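2024-03-11 09:14:02 INFO receiving multi-entity request
2024-03-11 09:14:02 INFO entity count = two
2024-03-11 09:14:03 INFO echoing inputs for audit
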Amino acid sequence: MYKNFAEVKSALTSGVSVLEITESYLKRIEEYKNLNAFLEVFTDSVRENALRVDEKIKAGNAGRLAGMVIGVKDNICYKGHKVSASSKILEGFESLYTATALERLLNEDAIVIGRLNCDEFAMGSSNENSAFGPVRNPLNTNTVPGGSSGGSAAAVAANLCTISLGSDTGGSIRQPASFTGTYGIKPTYGRISRYGLIAYASSFDQIGAFTNTLEDNALVTEIMSGKDPMDSTSTSREVGSFALTPTDEKKRIAYIQEAYEMEGMQPEVKERMDEVIATLKADGHIVEPVSFPYLDYMVPTYYVLSTAEASSNLSRFDGVHYGYRAKNAVGVEATYKKSRSEGFGPEVQRRIMAGTFVLSNEFYEAYYSKGQKVRRVLQTKTKAIFADFDFVLTPTTPATAFELNAVNDPIQMYLQDIFTVHANLTGNPAISLPYGKSNDGMPFGLQLMSAPFTEKALYDFSAYLETKFQLN
Amino acid sequence: MENTREKYEVVIGLEVHAQMLTKTKAYSNDVNEFGAHPNTNVSVVSLGHPGTLPVMNKKTIENAIKLGLACHSNIASNQYFARKNYFYPDLPKGYQITQDKTPICTGGHLVVKDDLGNYKNVGITRIHMEEDAGKSIHDVDVYDTLVDLNRAGVPLLEIVSEPDIRSSQEAYNYVAEVRKLVRYLDICDGNMEEGSLRCDANISVRLVGTIEFGTKVEVKNMNSIRNVQRAIEFEITRQIEVVENGGEVSQETRGFDALKGITISMRSKEAANDYRYFPEPDLQPLFVDQPQIDAIKNDMPALPRELYLKYTEEFGLSEYDATNLVDNKYIALYFEDVLLHTKQIKTAANLLMGEVKSYLNQQAVEITEFPLKPNVIAELVNLIEAGKVSYSIASSKVFPALFEFTDKSVLEVATILNVIQDSDEDSIANYVKQVIESNTTEVQRYVAGEKQLVGFLMGQLMKVSQGKADPKQANPMLRKILDELS
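2024-03-11 09:21:47 INFO inference complete, emitting structure
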């Protein structure tokens, strides 16, 4: 079993081949089939690629990620392989190209072992919305791994691959990271190319990594970052090295008063938060509460804007060009209606309808336009916080993983995102660090958010926290 | 009917779509060309595959600004793109990327001739950038509609006019003007038959003197400028008939059937789509600054209207000549090039509109394929003006020979042809002497007062000189001698 890339590399040094490492992962995937983390294991291509990397290692020209075996969320395109966004509507669809972020990892000789289950079109917070069944949390299989990148979180937590890729639109990486005790980052909007990521909400989506160590997280995020000519929203800002350099520099840290006082937070989460604050203060950092009285507006704003974009982004799945087409549909209108009604699951349909509604001529001003205004206010206010502070600290989730089928009300499910949507609405980077366990042993995460394009500082301070709290 | 017609005022606004002549598509690197095999100019972006994203083709912005400047429009400094959402099999993304609330150009006008031949301004509401859809082909396969996505993503400029057009002839003139302009600016080839220039017309009628507009009908599918005129003409008659018979024109979209020459209802306005426009999140907002606009302005070719005014007002050419010269961009450019080598504007214009144009017609070639360079034509013009050859000899003898003696100068060709005019004072005096001696009767009559006989005597002189005497010199000399005899 290989828990992280350091273990993989030391195995390589002691003479273990990439193929052998791959075989051990394949075996473990088989053993953990009950998790339903993988939708498809690329048994053939991963072996071929392992052999190819072994050759490169022998020749002495292997890339920085030689030996790394990665799992990819089923909404990231990989040339010549199926991709379905965990939806029936993409039945049989195979991608003709590779997402830029993944391509950059492949260029450094990472290899892909398979595609990972997720909520359909990344819409969900429990991974129960997949057309291919829910994923189970490896730490307690009665609970969910979180969502929408549930398969990616579970696969890393269960050591079914070295690292995995997910996507985060409202918390889809950080919430599952919190539920599975893994590291998960949502980089700054524009930091990593979205080309090849099946769009849910274009102005929110970012690709990010799940890892078992901070070091691995920084490494793959660095490699994936940077301008991509295929994505106009990716930035040409310099990336630099994300390699961890812990400092004892004193930082200014804010915690959000309203989040801290939120009702219904699990007692252990709150206690641990108090502990962290006290320790940081004792260590000489400035830790202060800031009032950010917009908590109640964030989730509604997020759902208005993200569903609006989704309703348009998902128009292309129409049963005409590729993927699922309803049988016995006569005429183009019926083909659309039947294919989409049969191909999309209930949550996706709900969001398409909500998004269509908020963009309709009659309600555009009342919903979409207002949502845009609230988003701008949030961006301004958040910028103001980062003028005075280096980091904003919150729990990633108010509680630990819940049981399967426990949350049936969509609105209750949407509140899973209460602490995470902030970073997607404003574009800031945010990371979830495993930092505590409840009395029944389930993990929960600490979310650290920083100013746009300060991933390096985010990683360095996380490294400091890790030493301070001995998180691992 | 004619009297009935006069009771009504016609109100027309036109929407013209011009496909841009860019190498690649609006938001991808796919090739933009007409006539390729179906579905060959397509990558995952044109196909709308999951995960693909648009990337702005900068050339389209430049084209939009050029056209905006040519129409005297305001260029927006700050704009964003929008998605227009609707389902159609030739629209693979399920939305079209366009501009909604922030078009790149607003306001401005085009100068167009009205029915009386007077020039009027037709206002421009807006010009914006968007992408074309693919093509649905209904008549190739018996059972299925076929979709060709080569056109999907081809950049378009949509030019929306104010409802300032008052007749089908004005509409014709307006579209012709737009076409001339986009051709001058190299934005679009203006080919309506191939669909690279398309026009929709909004037409309504109202009683003369009424302030409110009548109910407007949108007419589509007019694949030539002539058909725009025919469709509008039909529609005007139809609408007036409806109103005259006590009916109401219903708001709808109609298509033009070119074979029957009629418009046919396609859909009523109640069935109108809600396009759910919203800002395109995959593209960054676009900023255009003044230096960029200035750079484009400095790079722009002379425009037909400017040239027309120059030719008529500055050069003193007739309206007819000026119109003909600017009608085709390449003829105008050729003319401009000729003028770089000669100052004889009128002679150059005559030669171009005369011999050169008839050569082009006979050979059925464009001026761009014309074998003689502008400096050669200028040389011929200069030879005429220098009195070395007469205009008629130049056009009938020298001009055709230039195509054979391509390695010789025009003067050398004229010399070989032995048509160089005699400008030598002594020899011209000699010709005059010969004419007077051998036409004594006519000379007598001239002296007696029949002054018009100078023409005949001049003709005799040219005959004697075998056409080589320079008439500009010979004519005054002949008159002088004759008048001395009187």
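2024-03-11 09:21:48 INFO post-check: The mean pLDDT of chain B is 93.
2024-03-11 09:21:48 INFO post-check: The longest strand of chain B covers residues 119-131.
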